[in-house]
Design brief:
The radius of gyration is 14 Å and the shape is globular. Helices cover about 25% and strands about 25% of the residues. It has one domain (about 10-100): Alpha-Beta Plaits (2-Layer Sandwich), CATH 3.30.70. It has helices at about 15-20, 40-50, 75-80, and strands at about 25-35, 60, 65-70, 85-90, 90-95. It contains three helices and five strands. Strand 4 (about 85-90) and strand 5 form a beta hairpin. The chain is an alpha+beta fold and about 110 residues long. InterPro entries: DUF4283. This is DUF4283 domain-containing protein.
Length: about 110
């Protein structure tokens, strides 16, 4: 089992969790382990190609060096999550679910 250091813990406020509740059914939080810079378009296109996604695939940068990846539907999200971690452009991509955030704001 992997260990998480204090500086890797990400916290969200209850307001952030509540405002994102609907998106949680289709959204993953991702972290790309790299020092290279990727644009959102590059990452989205690489994910679309790797996952063969049809329909909306939205990638946006959030705080704490995380990416919010919104899938076309919940099934696509589950498919990607169940096959993780992923290697995208020779970089490790890991996920967290938005719906596992507890009410104290801890991921």
């Amino acid at each position: 089992m992997a260990h998480v250091s204090e500086d890797q813990v990400v916290q969200f406020s209850l307001g952030e969790v509540q405002s994102n509740k609907f998106r949680a059914t289709r959204t993953l939080l991702g972290r790309l382990f790299t020092t290279d810079q990727f644009t959102m378009v590059e990452l989205r296109d690489a994910l679309r190609s790797a996952w063969q996604i049809k329909g909306l695939l939205k990638v946006s940068k959030t705080q704490h060096d995380l990416f919010e990846i919104t899938m076309p539907n919940e099934e696509a999200k589950k498919w990607a999550l169940n096959r993780s971690p992923w290697v995208i452009k020779d970089r490790l991509l890991t996920f967290a679910l938005l719906d596992v955030i507890d009410y104290q704001g801890n991921l």
